[in-house]
Write a structure and sequence with these properties.
This protein has ten helices and no strands. Helix 3 runs antiparallel to helix 4, helix 4 packs antiparallel against helix 8 and helix 5 crosses helix 10.
Length: 212
């Protein structure tokens, strides 16, 4: 049990993910966060930044060129969303009636739905940069049966923008010693800044529920 717990803690730390499992585990985590219902707790944004930084400063840990890394991450993110879409399509509206559990909270799905109602298909692009919404947006798209071609367009654009912007930022900024020395604070900053829109949407949804 302790070994399982240690592994789960590893999955929440970007640097540990890469040191523990290299490129293989990195790609799996990106796939899981964007394709599996339980992946909402994984550190997507900071993972993109740290993987770019490690590719520049400790390339032996990943063993690939930055271009290969980015293309691999985009492919994992796109495939993850496709799996999430078909899961949502298969389960359908019954997902909204699913009881809360340790790894599933209905409020996360409802927050994503509220965000989707306000932003439409752009949620699949914008949501890439937002925890929780990143995981539930493709699932919701499947539940409401968004046209698959339209979904794939947003999927590819969103994955490409997410991976390249944060990955390249980590690759170039990570070569600056101050950034490398303060990566812990940068990760915390990324978590806080990306949670603000999610919290705002959650508050909006809560007020709407009270009004109804």
């Amino acid at each position: 049990m302790s070994e399982i717990w240690e592994f789960l803690k590893t999955l929440t730390d970007p640097a540990s993910i890469i040191q523990y499992g290299g490129l293989t585990l990195l790609l799996f985590v990106v796939f899981a966060e964007t394709g599996l219902l339980v992946g909402f707790f994984l550190p997507g944004d900071s993972l993109m930044f740290v993987s770019g930084m490690i590719c520049a400063t400790r390339p032996e840990l990943l063993g690939v060129h930055i271009v290969v890394l980015l293309l691999s991450l985009i492919a994992a993110a796109v495939l993850g969303n496709v799996v999430g879409y078909y899961f949502g399509k298969r389960v359908g509206p019954a997902l909204f009636r699913k009881e809360d559990s340790l790894l599933f909270k209905k409020r996360n799905l409802e927050t994503t739905q509220d965000f989707y109602l306000r932003h439409g298909g752009k949620t699949l692009v914008m949501g890439r940069f937002l925890p929780i919404i990143r995981t539930f947006a493709p699932i919701l798209a499947g539940v409401i049966q968004v046209d698959f071609k339209k979904f794939m367009w947003y999927n590819i654009v969103g994955a490409s923008a997410w991976v390249t912007s944060l990955g390249l930022a980590g690759y170039f900024l990570g070569q600056i010693k101050w950034v490398e020395d303060n990566i812990g604070y940068i990760v915390i900053f990324l978590i806080i800044i990306t949670m603000i829109p999610v919290y705002t949407t959650w508050r909006h949804q809560k007020r709407k529920h009270k009004a109804n």
